[in-house]
Design a protein that fits this description.
Length: 271
């Protein structure tokens, strides 16, 4: 079975010069599907176009907490309209995302972030879509809102919380995303989590072009093709066969994002 990168930003400017070869390289490394989440209304078109023109790509629509300061209230209405429209198309969004809370950035506006987060949770609930969550120094607040707004689940992207927080997410029907951060030998907490959590709760991601694995730390860009080595490392940390990691994490991604299951069986075409 092939791998799924549940979180990569293929629309990013870093891929402008060689996007097609980056996608092909991922396919050559057994990554069959790549989920590309939006971060702002301004890139809704780009992520949608990737899904429409590349059968190996799926997309999510949402407003990232780091972009709420440059967003408008009308963008939430536009998001809801786009979701409703695209769900009737051949290329439906697989999630609402990337959304969440980020208390790490300087001069963050907590109230504004929470407003956009909650309104997007409501859209996800309205259309029975999972969410792709971004959370830095804000996991407890994210969990508080998730308990209030019961959803079908989703993915806690780039998870780096405690085991107790991980268990709370799992109890709420979420999978936990792991990628390049776990490749660093100093990332003891993440390595312990990915080694001990039920494999049924784990999905793979690169967050490309960000969070390069340790072996790329001197490079400026991460790419989806690194997912294969990341998955092999997880197999090594868990002392299991790599095939088990591939099959389980792919099934987990398809389970948590039902629309992705419909896309996963499409023939692969690159334009």
């Amino acid at each position: 079975m092939a791998l799924i990168d549940t979180h990569c930003h293929l629309d990013a400017a870093e891929f402008e010069a060689d996007r097609e070869s980056v996608i092909q390289d991922a396919l050559n490394n057994n990554i069959k599907m790549m989920v590309v989440p939006a971060v702002h209304r301004s890139n809704f078109v780009a992520v949608t176009a990737l899904a429409q023109t590349h059968s190996c790509c799926a997309h999510a629509l949402g407003i990232h907490p780091m972009y709420v300061a440059t967003s408008q209230e009308e963008d939430l209405a536009f998001l809801e309209q786009e979701v409703a429209h695209q769900l009737q198309s051949e290329h439906p969004p697989v999630a609402i995302g990337e959304i969440g809370l980020d208390y790490f950035i300087a001069d963050y506006n907590k109230a504004l972030q929470e407003h956009y987060f909650v309104e997007q949770l409501k859209i996800a609930k309205q259309y029975d879509l999972p969410v792709i969550l971004h959370g830095r120094r804000a996991i407890d607040d994210i969990l508080k809102h998730l308990r209030k707004h019961k959803l079908r689940g989703g993915i806690a992207h780039a998870f780096n919380g405690s085991r107790q927080q991980a268990d709370f997410f799992i109890d709420l029907g979420f999978k936990l995303g792991f990628g390049g951060a776990l490749t660093y030998s100093r990332a003891l907490n993440i390595r312990e989590l990915v080694s001990s959590l039920p494999l049924e709760s784990v999905v793979l991601e690169t967050d490309a072009p960000d969070i390069p694995p340790e072996w790329l730390q001197n490079d400026k860009r991460n790419s989806p093709n690194q997912l294969l080595k990341i998955s092999e490392l997880i197999a090594s940390l868990r002392h299991i066969n790599h095939t088990q990691v591939t099959e389980m994490t792919t099934n987990n991604a398809i389970e948590i994002m039902p629309n992705l299951a419909k896309l996963f069986t499409r023939p692969q075409v690159i334009h």
